[in-house]
């Protein structure tokens, strides 16, 4: 099934998906089998691959290795056009709506077209809103943009709604990789009420409570990266919780 429809179905059913984010800069090829063995024992439904500063050429062999260990959709979450590979199943076609840098609003997207035109990836238009999770992140440094504070709820909502009006099919609320504070429940709830498209939430979710709060607040897909990188026992948290809003 299309990964996009898997997310749409999750929204309809009220049982959000959990996605693991694998950063090609942090997981080596040799570590893939053991890591994917852990993933297979959990309710993780989607595997995202990407990062802000990944060297060209290392994403493709990593995705190929991951695909040897899973039938779950592997979806690119790229920081730039150099991370594209047709070995994956899909692509979050991101626009950095919180920023005002044309490089990440249109230039990278145009540059990707010659590759994507020939590729078989499922490409899904995704608004990407960087929020201030309390820590300077690589995304901020690379994109030269500033995140929106959690307190500016109307600005967050208006940005997300503008993305929906412009045709985004998914909206990603991002507190930043390794954020000190994940996206607050109130922010997710407000955006959720205002949009018809599914909402992805990630950044700084590293405790069971943060995960449960994010589930209850109405996120349709929850992305976790750092928690698994730093402490693989976090996989056990996933085994023990009921994933329903
Ligand atoms: C980052 O939202 C993802 O782009 C995941 O964040 O690494 O903090 O889990 P963490």
TrEMBL record:
EC number: 2.5.1.41
Keyword Magnesium: yes
Entry cofactors: Mg(2+)
UniProt KW keywords: Lipid biosynthesis, Lipid metabolism, Magnesium, Metal-binding, Phospholipid biosynthesis, Phospholipid metabolism, Transferase
UniProt key word Transferase: yes
Family: Belongs to the GGGP/HepGP synthase family. Group II subfamily.
Protein name per UniProt: Geranylgeranylglyceryl phosphate synthase
Organism: Neptunitalea lumnitzerae
């Amino acid at each position: 099934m299309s990964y996009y429809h898997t997310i749409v179905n999750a929204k309809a059913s009220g049982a959000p998906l959990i996605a693991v984010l694998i950063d090609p800069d942090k997981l080596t090829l040799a570590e893939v089998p053991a890591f994917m063995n852990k993933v297979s024992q959990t309710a993780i439904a989607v595997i995202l691959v990407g990062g802000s500063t990944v060297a060209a050429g290392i994403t493709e062999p990593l995705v190929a290795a991951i695909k040897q260990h899973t039938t779950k959709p592997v979806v690119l979450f790229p920081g730039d056009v150099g991370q594209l590979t047709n070995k994956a199943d899909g692509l979050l076609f991101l626009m950095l709506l919180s920023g005002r840098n044309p490089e990440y609003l249109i230039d990278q997207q145009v540059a990707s077209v010659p590759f994507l035109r020939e590729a078989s990836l499922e490409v899904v238009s995704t608004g990407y809103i960087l929020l201030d999770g309390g820590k300077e992140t690589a995304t901020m440094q690379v994109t030269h943009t500033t995140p929106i504070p959690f307190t500016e709820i109307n600005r967050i909502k208006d940005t997300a709604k503008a993305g929906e009006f412009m045709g985004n099919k998914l909206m990603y609320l991002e507190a930043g990789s390794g954020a000190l504070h994940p996206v607050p429940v109130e922010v997710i709830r407000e955006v959720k009420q205002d949009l018809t498209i599914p909402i992805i939430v990630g950044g700084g979710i590293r405790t069971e409570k943060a995960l449960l709060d994010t589930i209850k607040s109405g996120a349709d897909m929850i992305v976790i990266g750092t928690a698994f990188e730093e402490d693989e026992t976090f996989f056990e948290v996933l085994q023990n919780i009921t994933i329903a809003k």
